Amino acid sequence: QVQLVESGGGLVQAGGSLRLSCAASGRTFSTYAMGWFRQAPGKEREFVAVIRGTGGVTAYADSVKGRFSISRDNAKNTVYLQMNSLKPEDTAVYYCAAGSGGAYLPRETYLYDYWGQGTQVTVSS
Question: Which residues have C-beta within 8 Å of that of residue 114, sequence separation ≥ 6?
């Protein structure tokens, strides 16, 4: 069982930055690919970024590529999402998720086993 707790969301003006954190419980953190997803009102949850269990290899949605950066510190059981040049369309609840089962850099929600409760990010224009 893995428990995930996100933090770092808030209100920011367009062009600003935020850094989200996701703290995980358990001693097997490095065996999980960690992903960030987001869900805006009335829309489906969508993939944002993912990082391999041992770190170093990442993938991003086209909509955030070049603006967002995912990283992890396995010694602290924490994954981060640095968000720069934020746009109003980035407004959503952001979720972190842990995925096991062999998928390398999963982008689909069903490939993830554990989810956090989400943190709200609001970008004003």
Answer: 1, 2, 3, 4, 32, 97, 98
